[in-house]
Design brief:
- Strands 3-2-1-4-5-7-6 form a seven-stranded mixed sheet.
- The protein has helices spanning about 5-35, 50-65, 85-105, 120-135, 150-160, 210-215, 220-230, 240-250, 260-270, 290-300, and strands spanning about 40-45, 70-75, 105-110, 140, 185, 200-205, 280-285.
- The protein is α/β, with parallel strands linked by helices.
- The longest helix is centred in the N-terminal third of the chain and has 33 residues, at about 5-35.
- It has a single domain (about 35-300), classed as Rossmann fold.
- It has ten helices and seven strands.
- Helix 3 (about 85-105) links the parallel strand 2 (about 70-75) and strand 3 (about 105-110).
- The structure holds zinc ion (ZN).
- Zinc ion binds near residues 46, 47, 50, 149 and 152.
- Zinc ion binds near residues 46, 47, 149 and 152.
Amino acid sequence: MCFYTLSLHKIISTAMKKIFTLVCFVLLTSWAFSQNEPINVIVFGAHPDDCDLDAGGTAILFAKMGHNVKFVSLTNGDAGHQDKGGGELARIRIAEAKEAGKRFGVEYSVLDNHDGELMPTLVNRLKVIREIRKWNADIVIAPRPNDYHPDHRYTGILVQDAAYMVIVPNVAPEVRPLTKNPVFLYSEDGFQKPNPLTPDIAVDIDEVFDQKIYALSAHESQFFEWLPWTMGILDQVPSDEKERLSFLANWRNKKPSSSTTECLKKWYGDKAAITNHAEIFEICEYGKQPTDEEILKLFPMLKK
Ligand SMILES: [Zn+2]
């Protein structure tokens, strides 16, 4: 081998090494990036305060970990008060929702449908599909379609009807379809017929329970006026801000049921025995059916 051939060989081998190192670097960086990609969660409720109650603690945990959460209320809440109503009440409730959103660390959107009049129409279904697509959702949370309140029921129907349709390009073609059907989850309710909710995922929210209460308290017209009025306990609502928070905390304080504790055990092990506050979700059959491993990736707060 002559001198020139030798040096050419050396140059080529050095260049190959550099290219190999570069390729490895690019591959490793993109792998690391994909591991850290934020999870996009969208929660639907019928009224401005429903998402908060159903998934507020879970939302805080996601937001603290750098993930994206959006709450969408399908009505503007303009019927939820004993003294006020219409546009005036809608404005109050939109402002309360925005404040709650800040406290939860989530984006909050209130759609302009009248409270008490939500219907499972095609127009509303398309609105839900667009919201899910625009958020590029990995997880969609909504109530079950069996509930005491017609707005809650139809929110459940509308979101359930959006599952699968979110990937169909010819439906709402002006918004790019999702490439994968997200995981659709039902939020907790206490209804027993035709069947009680089966908890598939239970999130321990003890560490953020106080923050959830503080965020909920932004809905002053609901937790300190309207709901106590419907329950006949308006005279028990304290006026002092600190006392109001403990009033609300006592109100929302309920020990996990035995089925919730069972589910907590699956995801948290022995820690489940000392969990005081949890939010539970059932996997809807119409969305993606995640494996346990996929659930752990989608809910990084679940840790034994
Ligand atoms: Zn509601």
